[in-house]
Amino acid sequence: MVKQLLEEFLLFSPGPVDEVRIFFAPGRVNLMGEHLDYNGGFVLPAAINVGTWCLVRPRKSPGWRIKSRTESLEIIGLSSDILPPKPERGFANYPLGVVAMLRQADIPVPDADCYFAGTIPQGAGLSSSASLEVVTAYALTHLAGLSLDRTVLAKLAQQAENDYVGVPCGLMDQLTVTLGKEQHALLLNMQDLTCRPVPVPMQADWALVIVDSRKPHQLIVSPYRKRREECAAALALLHQQQWPIRYLADIRPDDLPRALAALGDPVLERRVRHIVHEQERTIHASEVLAQGDFTTFGRLMNASHESLRLDYEVTGPELDVLAMAAWSVPGCAGSRMTGAGFGGSTIAWVSRHAIDQFIAEVQAQYESRFGYAPAFLVASLADGVHEVFMTPEEAKSCEY
Ligand code: GLA
Where is the GHMP kinase N-terminal domain (predicted)? Predict the structure, then answer.
């Protein structure tokens, strides 16, 4: 793959091969802790082995020349016209948003030819946007000879998505893409942004299967923004009544009945109940994962899906059918939606000998209901963003 990408890059940007730098950022799944990042809770995501490649070379003329492998459009962004974002620039708004945020933070951004290629299925809810933003930030800062703190990098990438692209996402995705660790999940404390890698002994009997509903989710138009507003409203109500909390995830399980009574609104009650229970599940899940207890983890996943279906109301028929079909397969420890919801993917822990049966059964149930098949990916847990090195001989062989 790398060799082929380098050949393609040299057609797009002819010149000495030793000037070219190659970077890769993964996508992510969230194993537990959904909609907790913007509520100050714990989340338990992991970087996965699909992601975004970015090949760069310093450019002598001004600007950032941007091209993706799958789109014919080639964009040149100049510092004079980078703001505001322009819809006709399509995907290039993500890398250009990163450039804009780096410059706003007074971080030097060298002019460059940038070529992108992605292996994350679009719309699957596996953070293709965060992966694209992070790989751009990492590549351009490394080209400038800088090595930024990974949390700072994640925040700049999130800022590009929030302020430039206009999607109100939290920080979980970008943090996972920067901090990911092979064969580990990450227990992230979204208040102080500390990260504890949790080993996932997957070489044992269990596989992580991602099932893409192929119903795209859309963060801009989806109820995602609405959920954030509801959470802000619930927190404001509790603050009015002097609750000594900074975030909804600070509500202790013992105090939940009192908090629900204080809200006095059935919708806000359901949202807050999800947050408090999901926070408990996430801490519990990180403990059992470290012990390799996938059976208990699976039960927590099922409970999480039900909470997201009934209390947070972000699943929808496609994800419900996928999760429930998974629950009916012997050899599946548990399954839940992952990410924002409203479309995208579910995940499941599946005993390795049951993977074929799992795929056949879930596909049959989904297809009979919706008339098209979902897509399956047996994932492994991967490292965060990094540079990819080729030997000089390998690189030379790509020149023509
Ligand atoms: C999306 C957002 C994240 C997070 C999840 C829900 O993936 O980008 O910040 O809020 O939804 O857990």
Answer: 93-180
C-alpha 227 – ligand 1 centre gap (Å): 11
313 near 270, Cβ under 8 Å?
Answer: yes
**CB atoms near residue 194 (< 10 Å):** 10
Domain boundaries for CATH 3.30.70.890 within the chain: 206-379
CATH 3.30.230.10 domain extents, the chain? 2-199+383-397
Q: Which residues contact 290 (CB under 8 A, 6 or more apart)?
A: 198, 199
Under CATH, which architecture does the 206-379 domain have?
A: 2-Layer Sandwich (3.30)
CB 392 within 8 A of CB 6: no
Give the model confidence (pLDDT) of 21-46 as tens digits.
Answer: 999 999 999 999 999 999 999 999 99
Q: Decide if 7 contacts 398 (C-beta within 8 A).
A: yes
pLDDT digits (tens, 9 = 90+) for 142-161: 999 999 999 999 999 999 99
Active site residue 173: yes
What are the structure tokens assigned to 319, written together? Answer: 């994800």
pLDDT for residue 179 is more than 70: yes
Cβ contacts of residue 101 below 8 Å, gap of 6+? Answer: 156, 157, 159, 160, 163, 164
Give the dihedral sign, CA 286/290/296/302.
positive
The model's pLDDT over 114-147, given as tens digits with 9 standing for 90+, comes to 999 999 998 899 999 999 999 999 999 999 999 9
What number does the ligand 1 atom closest to the CA of 130 have?
8
The residue whose CA is least distant from atom 2 of ligand 1 is 169
